[in-house]
Amino acid sequence: MPFIDTFIHNNFMYMLLGHVAEKLDGDTWENLLTYRVLQPIGMTSSKLMLKPANAYQMKTARPFIYKDRMFQNGTKEIYE
Protein backbone atom coordinates (compact mmCIF):
# COMPACT_ATOMS: atom_id res chain seq x y z
CA MET A 1 0.00 0.00 0.00
CA PRO A 2 1.52 3.35 -1.02
CA PHE A 3 2.03 6.07 1.56
CA ILE A 4 -1.05 8.32 1.91
CA ASP A 5 -3.20 5.96 -0.10
CA THR A 6 -6.34 6.68 1.93
CA PHE A 7 -7.90 9.62 3.73
CA ILE A 8 -8.90 9.41 7.38
CA HIS A 9 -11.01 12.15 8.97
CA ASN A 10 -9.89 13.01 12.49
CA ASN A 11 -11.97 15.48 14.52
CA PHE A 12 -9.26 15.72 17.17
CA MET A 13 -6.84 17.25 14.67
CA TYR A 14 -9.42 19.87 13.62
CA MET A 15 -9.93 20.71 17.30
CA LEU A 16 -6.16 20.97 17.79
CA LEU A 17 -5.82 23.21 14.73
CA GLY A 18 -8.51 25.54 16.10
CA HIS A 19 -6.73 25.68 19.46
CA VAL A 20 -3.39 26.49 17.80
CA ALA A 21 -5.03 29.25 15.73
CA GLU A 22 -6.52 30.76 18.90
CA LYS A 23 -3.12 30.78 20.62
CA LEU A 24 -1.29 32.26 17.64
CA ASP A 25 -3.83 35.02 16.99
CA GLY A 26 -4.96 35.72 20.55
CA ASP A 27 -8.67 35.53 19.67
CA THR A 28 -11.30 32.81 19.87
CA TRP A 29 -11.75 30.27 17.07
CA GLU A 30 -15.32 31.47 16.64
CA ASN A 31 -14.21 35.07 16.10
CA LEU A 32 -11.38 34.03 13.78
CA LEU A 33 -13.75 31.99 11.63
CA THR A 34 -16.38 34.74 11.57
CA TYR A 35 -14.11 37.70 10.79
CA ARG A 36 -11.44 36.02 8.67
CA VAL A 37 -13.49 33.50 6.69
CA LEU A 38 -17.24 34.05 6.72
CA GLN A 39 -17.44 37.85 6.46
CA PRO A 40 -14.76 38.27 3.75
CA ILE A 41 -16.65 35.88 1.46
CA GLY A 42 -19.97 37.62 2.09
CA MET A 43 -21.54 35.09 4.46
CA THR A 44 -22.77 37.78 6.84
CA SER A 45 -25.89 35.94 7.98
CA SER A 46 -24.01 32.73 8.88
CA LYS A 47 -23.62 32.16 12.59
CA LEU A 48 -21.68 29.75 14.75
CA MET A 49 -23.70 27.74 17.20
CA LEU A 50 -21.86 27.98 20.51
CA LYS A 51 -24.35 25.96 22.55
CA PRO A 52 -26.60 23.09 21.42
CA ALA A 53 -29.52 24.80 23.16
CA ASN A 54 -29.26 27.64 20.61
CA ALA A 55 -29.98 25.29 17.70
CA TYR A 56 -33.68 26.00 17.42
CA GLN A 57 -33.43 29.67 18.42
CA MET A 58 -31.03 30.59 15.61
CA LYS A 59 -33.13 29.39 12.66
CA THR A 60 -30.70 26.58 11.94
CA ALA A 61 -31.38 23.81 9.46
CA ARG A 62 -33.35 20.99 11.00
CA PRO A 63 -31.63 17.62 11.18
CA PHE A 64 -32.98 14.47 9.63
CA ILE A 65 -32.22 10.96 10.82
CA TYR A 66 -32.28 7.88 8.61
CA LYS A 67 -33.97 5.23 10.71
CA ASP A 68 -35.97 2.13 9.79
CA ARG A 69 -35.28 2.75 6.07
CA MET A 70 -36.84 6.20 6.08
CA PHE A 71 -35.92 9.77 6.92
CA GLN A 72 -37.42 11.19 10.09
CA ASN A 73 -37.26 14.64 11.62
CA GLY A 74 -34.43 14.81 14.12
CA THR A 75 -34.68 16.46 17.51
CA LYS A 76 -32.49 19.14 19.03
CA GLU A 77 -30.70 16.45 21.05
CA ILE A 78 -28.73 15.60 17.90
CA TYR A 79 -26.75 18.82 18.43
CA GLU A 80 -25.51 17.70 21.84
TrEMBL record:
Domain called Beta-lactamase-related: residue spans: 7-54
Record-linked Gene3D superfamilies: DD-peptidase/beta-lactamase superfamily
Pfam (any one): Beta-lactamase
Protein name (Swiss-Prot/TrEMBL): Beta-lactamase-related domain-containing protein
Organism listed in the record: Dreissena polymorpha (Zebra mussel)
Taxonomic lineage from the root: Eukaryota, Metazoa, Spiralia, Lophotrochozoa, Mollusca
